[in-house]
Amino acid sequence: MEAEGRDQDIEHLIASCPWPEDAQSLIDDLGITDERRARAAAMLAGASRSMSKAVRRDPSLLGVLDPPADFATEKISLVAPDDDDALDGLRRWKRRQLLRIALRDLLGEADLATVGRELSLLADACFARALEIADEGPPLAIIGMGKLGGNELNYASDVDIVFVHEGGTEAAVKRARKVVQALTSFTVEGAVYRVDTDLRPDGQTGSLSLPSDAYRHYFEQRAHAWERQAYIKTRLCAGDPEVGNAFFDAIRPGVWEENLGAKTVPSLQAMKKRVEESAKLKGDRELKKGPGGLRDIEFTVQLLQLVHGRTDPTIRSPNTLTALRQLSWGEYIDQADAVHFTTAYIHLRTVEHRLQLRDERQTHELPTADADREWAARASGFESLEAFQASHLRHQTSVREIHQRIFYRQTLDRMHETGLVSELLPDHLGQLGFEDPDRAAGTIERLTENLGRRANVMQQVLVIMV
Q: What torsion, rounded to 10 degrees, do the Cα atoms 443, 445, 450, 452 define?
């Protein structure tokens, strides 16, 4: 369409777009005359090369915008179509839904938390369809882990899952393999997801699916500290609800064990240092593992959950932003620190989403080329690269300072090694010179029995004193 024949509102929309040339090209190629579709095409043109190509090949994909009221509403359930062309049909449906979510994101119809929920819901629906494709078998449940478990999935994430079943293991493993194959096998329509099942007990050497009792035994006997941390972020994604509930009942005592081993906190701190070392060469370009990155926030939140969640079930959310609110409400983290973490997390995840959406490729690094960095700044909502870099540096600096202050503080180690002060034995207090150890133990228990910050501080102070 020639510029002189185009609606003035669309002309203005193109001119104000972060990437006007790309926007004009896509709108012209598709012959769009509707302002609403033009706005969607304009944002998509520069934000995602892969999705722009898909829309050029099949303009009907923009039908996900209709009806407007439905497009503007967050989905609370999704059901993949049951058609004869099972595998390719699922892939095409997933792509349309992914485009719908991306457009809602780019047009400001959905915030970061909503995007994460809808991406996770999309995965759940694909899992449910894959279970149907896998035919009949023992009752099976698919448990989401990591970002999927926290309802905060990325655009191009691997999906971390584990399987749990009831009944015979051999038949359950066979069905689980069919599910993984349905999700990961490539056809002319591509694959549905990259699937990672390595977080199951014993990793790649362990059974692909286990009954709930096997999970219980593993966490009672052999689970490592990092596995307890990882299993904070779990939820039922698809499959048999009763099997899923049995799984959560089985792992709960192990994840939230009453007395953590003396090496738990130090081992998690050491693991965090190894994670940082692996990303050292990438410097501040690394959004996930680098200093001031997402892992600083996530490790801090999860360590606080492990230490304090043993006695306070209200801070056990697998979702990072929700957990931050819970920790702040319980006064386990200073409110100002929680606010800094929250705003930085939203910034970092938004940038990560934009980087991954460009080519639907898993990446956590800021680009090195100036032109690509300029694009990343515009895609993330900044008017200039300078403004983006200044904001990014502020967030990284704030996150790093809070992380180091909380994650490596000695009081966490002392609480962890000694246990809750209410569990100190009266004879231990007697050795410290208390005339009435039983009465002293009762007084300490009353001082520390609440779940708020005051009781938490009292616990830490008393542990150090004794």
A: 90
* Cβ–Cβ under 8 Å, residues 341 and 300: yes
pTM: 0.88
Domain boundary (255, 274, 309) is at: 255
CATH number at residue 326: 1.20.120.330
| Distance between CA atoms of residues 14 and 11, nearest Å | 5
Last residue of a domain, one of 375, 407, 439: 407
Closest CA to 443 of 428, 421, 416, 415: 421
Q: Kindly report, residue by residue over 148-182, the tens digit of the pLDDT.
A: 999 999 999 899 999 999 999 999 999 999 999 99
Amino acid (1-letter code) at residue 7: D
Q: Are 340 and 398 in contact (CB under 8 A)?
A: yes
Domain that holds residue 429: 420-466
Scored b (16 or more CB within 10 A) or e, 410-431 reads ebbbebbebebbbebeeeebee
Q: What is the DSSP letter of 85?
A: S
3-class state of residue 159 by DSSP: strand
Q: Which residue has 């792992």 as its token pair? A: 251
Cβ neighbours for 354, distance < 8 A, ≥ 6 positions apart: 47, 376, 379, 380
The SS3 of residue 144 is: strand
